[in-house]
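Here is one chain, start to finish.
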Amino acid sequence: MTKPLLLHAHATGPNPIKIAIALEALKVPYDVQQWEFGDDPKKGVKGEAYLKINENGRLPSLQDPNTGVVAWESGACMNYIRRVYDREGQLGPAGKKEQDIVDLEKWEYFVLTNLAPMLGQVNWFRNYHEVKNQDALDRYSAQVYRCFGVLEGQLKKSNGESILPEKITAVDYHAEPWVRQYTFAGLSLDSYPLLQRWLAGMAKLEEVKRGYVKVKGQGPE
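Its structure:
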């Protein structure tokens, strides 16, 4: 019998949600431990207790008592889940050719290295930075809109159903919590109708609903 995995999370962060969604999709049992931002030695992500789990002091982290593996960085967590628990390839590409595998990886890395960091910077300069920096906000907002445009073009292949045209994959799970941050970031999807359609469709998926509730205590909408 599979013991529950332990997902370390914070309710406001997008990255733990994507891991919860993947675990829900695969019906892998897991518990969530919430952490605070800051350096409280017992509760904070920069505190002594959490740094023993994740030396980088960021979320998520994933502990698997069934294998003894500890993963952190959302990409590493997702890939671990896929290797160990996705035996049927549910979260992987529709095909098994090298191009199919590369297509998933390139869009996964696009989200991890382009969309997510740029949206994170917009969130910071819009909502948290103590000194207004309009130049930085404009620069990062432009980069997010560039990423939205790239996704809009890709979504034409599926009419807004999924980022890879054949089916929902781990790429969609990676992207969903970040794109959904657009309102918090003060951005608009008005120019991206397929991205809007995709986001609305993702919110209807049961694994997405359950993942949000498990981490945030409420659904995606």
